[in-house]
Structure prediction request, 79 residues.
Amino acid sequence: MSKIHYKGWEIIPVVLPTTDGKWTASCDIAHADANGMEVFEGATMQFLREREDDAVSAACEEAVRQIDNLIANPDVRLA
Prediction:
């Protein structure tokens, strides 16, 4: 999937089908450092849904919340 740009950050969705016909998705979260190199900051948990779009939406919504939290409190890093 394509990267999603959000407030200077990159959300990189990963979605895969499961063996039981459902979809699982998560998002990596990254930003560019002063040299323009992408720095991995964390990832969301896995979201399991019946439809691919629903799984991606759930993961991306969580990524947006994590980025907003990092912006609000930059001293706190993702685990």
Summary: The first strand starts at residue 4 and ends at 6. Residues 4-72 form one domain. The first helix runs from residue 52 to 72.
